[in-house]
Structures are given as C-alpha cells and as structure tokens.
Amino acid sequence: MSLPGSGGMQDDAGTLLQVRDLRVNFLTSERESVPAVRGISFAIPEDATVALVGESGSGKTVTGLAVMGLLPRGRSVIDPAARIQYRGRELTALDYAGLRALRGAEMSMIFQDPMSSLNPVFSVGFQIGEVLRLHLGLDAEQARARTIVLLDEVGIPEPARRVDSYPFELSGGQQQRAMIAMAIACGPRLLIADEPTTALDVTIQKQIIELLAELKVRQRMSMLFISHDLALVGEIADWIVVMRQGEIREQGPADRILGAPQDAYTRALLACRPRLDRRRARLPVVADFLDADPDQVDASDRLVTHQLSHPSEPVTRAQAAQRDVDTPPALEVQGLSVSYSGREGLRRVERPAVREVNFRLGRGRTLGLVGESGSGKTTLARAIAGLLPVSAGVVRLDGRTLAGATRTMNERRRLQIVFQNPHASLNPRFTAGRLLMEPMRLHGIGAGEDERLERVGELLRRVGLPPEAAQRYPHEFSGGQRQRIAVARCLALEPDVLICDEAVSALDVSVQAQLLNLLQDLQDDFGMSYLFISHDLAVVRHVADEVLVMRAGSIVEQGVADTLFARPEHPYTRELLAAVPGLT
Questions:
Q1: Is the same domain home to 206 and 139?
Q2: Is 511 within the bounds of a domain?
Q3: 174 and 119 in one domain?
Q4: Does the model's pTM come out above 0.90?
Q5: Helices marked H in 137-282 — which ranges?
Q6: Of 224, 257, 395, 455, whose CA is between 20 and 30 Å from 144?
Q7: DSSP-based three-state secondary structure for 91
Q8: Nearest to residue 462, comparing CAs of 506, 528, 398, 413?
Q9: pLDDT tens track for 345-366
Q10: Are 5 and 79 within one domain?
Q11: CA distance 378 to 380
C-alpha cells in the first residue's frame, strides 16, 4: 500500500484522493475573510484509511466538506490554486450536477450528529431508499428490499421492522448505523466519516469501528476518518494527519505518530486524555506542551502520577469510601424505579426504564455512573433531578426526602444538572449574561441587579471565560465554551449536588481536560458532590471515587473506583473495559 510521505507526496499511482495546498476562507457578515484551512496537502491511497485528527476548530470537518463539495455557498471560498483530485478528476472544477453524480455513488459522508442529519419526518427506510432510487434507479419495492439488507448488514436488529422506524425511535447507536447504511448503499469508493462515534458508549463505539473496518475490506473502500481522539483512530487508521488551527502539524504512519510523535501538539493530544491504567492528580492541557521541552513534560507527568499513587497519600479512595458510609450522605437514592407508558395494540402498558436503584453519594465526593446507551443513566439522572415522575422509591438530599414535580425552590436550587448537549439546553435568544442572571433572579440570589452582574462576571472568570463574554450569544461560543456556561449557570445557584449527564462526552480531549480540571477545582473549593454520568470509562476512572455500572435499568456492579477498574467482577463490566480503545 502506497502512502503519502511526511516530506511530500509520492507518485499519484494508486492514489484515490489527492489534496494539494487546500485553503478555505469563510466570509463573515461584514464580508471579512477568516481562514479555516491554511494550505494543507495529503493523499488517500486505494484501500487505505487516513485519519484527520485535531481539536474543534482545527479545520477537519471543513476539509471533509470541501472534498464533498458541501461547503456553504456564498459564505466560503476555496483558493483557486487548491487542488482536490478524485481518481484524477479535479473536483473543484465540477459543477453542481457533476458533484451530485459523484456524491452518494462514488463518495459518501457520515456526519457527526445523525439526529440532525436524518430527516425527522421520514422513516429511515425511505431515506436510505431515496439514495438507491436516485443513484441506482431501483423502484420502490427493490429499494425497500435492498434497504432491509443494508440495515441487517450494519447490525440493526429486526431490520424488516426497523425499516419503517423514524429516527427518534432509534437509539443513538442505531441512528449512526442507519447513517452508515445510507452512506454505503451504492458501494462508494471513498467514505468520509466525520466523528462517527462521538457521544456513543464504548461498546457501540467499538462495534461501529469494527463495522467500518469490515465494510472497508468487504467493499474495498478507502476512508477519511475524522476524529479528535488519537486513541480511537489508532484502532482503524493506516496514516494519521494531525491538524491545528487549519494547518497540518505532522503526518505519518499511525504506529509512528502514536508511538513516537514528533510535534509537541501531537504529544499534547495524547497526554490530555485520561488513562485507565492510572489516575493523575490533574490532567495536562495543550498549553502545557506547546512551549515545553519533551523531557520536562515527561518528567512532570511522572511526578504527578507519583504524587497521586505514592503510599504516603493521606486518604485513599477506599478509606474515603468507608468514611462516607459512616457519615450522612449528601444524596441518597433508595429503591428508585421509573417506567414509561406505552401501547401494545389497544392496551396501555408500563415499560420499566430504571429498576430499584440504590446508592449513597458522600459530601464532596464523586460517584461515577457508566453503562451503554439505553441502560437508563439519563432517565435515572432526570428522575433524581425531579424532571421525571418516579414509579417507586425515594430521593433524599441531606436526609430530607425530595418530592417529584412539587419540590420547593430551595430544593431545586441545591440539586442541579448539567445536560449533555449545551446547544439544546441554552436558550439561543439569551446572552450568556442573561442565562446566568435568570436563575439568580428566580431564586432571589444577590441583593440587586448590580450585585448579580458582579456575580455573572465572577462566574464567567471561574469557568475560564472573560467577563465580556456575558454579551455574547450561545452560537458565538465553541462547544466547550457553551458547556462551561452551562456549568456556570448551575454554579450560580450554589448547589450542593451537581449531576453531570455526559457533560464532557462530545468535547475534544483538550477542552475535556480543561473542564474536568475545572470540576475538580470547584469540588475542592466548594465541597460539591457530583453524580458523574459518562460512557467514557477513562474519564470516569479519572474523576470518580466510586462507580455504579448500569445495564438494562439495573445496577449490576458498584464499588470503589480503583478496585472496580482493577478487578471487575460482573461480565458486563469486563465487557465495557475490553471495549475501550487500546491507547489508554
């Protein structure tokens, strides 16, 4: 297999896609030109997987959209000197009809968020069938039969029934599988996968990666795999291109990039990710590496690890867990069950989602909750927060039983939740300042508007944002910054317990490290207790004192984090750990 060399491109023979000196600028409303991609070059050979890796805003997705000809018209400009050649054809010279003939048939793209990419008013079968009808000329009956085969091929259970399901009736993993089925429907030669496993749990992530690798071999596809996670691309990529701020920092064979990275930024991406084999006192961030000597970085990392694991540590996790048993918990859940109503024919039935969950969360402690999509984690979190009715059981805050929807304002203030998607949980018509002011007004926090405004500035500084950010709207922030605002909004009420529901799952590793460090600082300063929900076991390993493992609505294993990760007892826990990408 011929791959592009780091010092320049090799001969074009055997190359499926060649990108040379790609420059993309976006136009602002004031018609100013903002560079997004700054002269990058790479190649994708036949039957190979090339990964684009970098933080949010590095230009990865823009590069993929440029190859597909999907950049927004009138708002983006590709430099005339740029070359994007697919099997020798210059894509930048093709008109709309020429690009449309290639898209879907020769080149396909899996987008990051399947729920926003799939049309909610059409069944998944109709949407996949539309591709087959347009590109292969199949009639409705043939398209339906082929769609069922495709759904079965990507591992969706009961494909003959699911073909008529709407996107909202599928889990996140099933939605992504439906997107993959649509992308491979016509047997494309090039598949662009843009963060196809972001926000999926580790077992589904592993299944998707294995599925893509299998389809690549079976259909002899080449793949451009876009991700922020170097550990993940190590499972699938032959060649890795590392991007930052629109430029390529380094590229080379996957084993060399992962084993002996040359660029400080690549080393930073590898180091920012939490590890399963050890827990560091504090996660490094990208800024720690860019201007540092590699030997110094390695030494400081070893020192942090030593300080955490040294036998002279005054209080171990196991000792702290025992201390929690002997003191009143901040949050206690007993026999909590949640069911959803549904219909089977003319009968109304109750479908259990959470089954008799019990746990205690100590003051100033973090309890991790892990499990696959559909295991009941978010349902449990919403029930504890009083956002869903419970079928049975009680929730106690500092020993006081909380009601459901009739909780007092003070009880709601003391128990807050950070949702997974800040884009959906932040009102797009409110500035960041108003988003923080509103809960303070409702709960009577602050003596007046002047004091509340002062608190807004302090909250923004606390989460690492400048006070002037109060005047900006959610769409003007990055994903990581929006999540910081969501955390600040909860902190405005000075809660005792904070539920983090997949709060860092969709963030790139550097922003994730910053937010995890922030949560640690806030816990140290204010003694807050966290119920930390995540599908990322390495993140849970880093933050949690104790861990609950949830499956099909029930807790199947729980214990001190160090013990559970070192010696898991339940087969399901071992299955979750086995699914974590190898570079952990």
A1: no
A2: yes
A3: yes
A4: no
A5: 140-153, 159-162, 172-184, 202-219, 230-233, 254-259, 264-272
A6: 224
A7: helix
A8: 528
A9: 678 878 899 999 999 999 999 9
A10: yes
A11: 5
Question: Domain total for the chain?
Answer: 3
The strand pairing partners of 400, in sequence order, are 397
> Are 451 and 511 found together in one domain?
yes
* Same domain, yes or no: 487 and 519: yes
Which tens digit of pLDDT belongs to each residue from 138-154?
999 999 999 999 998 88
Last residue of a domain, one of 142, 158, 187: 187
The amino acid occupying position 184 is I
As a whole number of angstroms, the distance between CA 517 and CA 513 comes to: 6
Q: What does the alpha-carbon distance between residue 230 and residue 209 come to, in Å, rounded to a whole number?
A: 14
- Residue pair 178/124 in contact (Cβ under 8 Å)? The answer is yes
Which residue from 570, 561, 536 is spatially nearest to 279, judged by alpha carbons?
561
d(CA 58, CA 368): 31
Distance CA 438, CA 426 (A): 12
Considering the domain boundaries, does residue 96 fall inside one? yes
Question: Do 373 and 345 sit in the same domain of this protein?
Answer: yes
φ, ψ of residue 291 to 5 degrees: the values are -110, 15
Residue 76: domain span: 1-106+191-262
- 8-state DSSP, 315: S
Q: What span, in angstroms and rounded, lies between the C-alpha atoms of 107 and 224? A: 11
Q: In degrees rounded to 5, what are phi and psi of residue 499?
A: -95, 120
Average pLDDT in the chain:
86
The verdict on residue 306 lying in a domain is no
pLDDT of 309 > 90? The answer is no
Q: Specify whether 47 is located in the same domain as 169.
A: no
Burial (Cβ within 10 Å: 0-12, 13-18, ≥19) of residue 96: exposed
Residue 289 lies in a domain: no
Whether residue 1 contacts residue 13, with contact meaning beta carbons closer than 8 Å, is answered with no
Task: List the one residue out of 127, 88, 83 whose CA is nearest residue 104.
Answer: 127
What CA–CA distance (Å, rounded) separates 347 from 475?
44
CATH of the domain at 546: 3.40.50.300
CA 247 to CA 257: how far, in whole Å?
A: 17
CA geometry: angle 341, 418, 437, nearest 5 deg: 115
The residues pairing with 347 across neighbouring beta strands, listed in sequence order, are 344
If asked whether residues 336 and 412 sit together in one domain, one would say yes
CA gap 510, 208 in Å, rounded = 24
Mean pLDDT across the stretch 317-327? 56
Q: Per mean pLDDT, which range of 182-196, 320-334, 422-436, 541-555 is the poorest?
A: 320-334
The residue among 138, 171, 187 that closes a domain is 187
Dig out the tokens for 448 from the structure: 């007046």
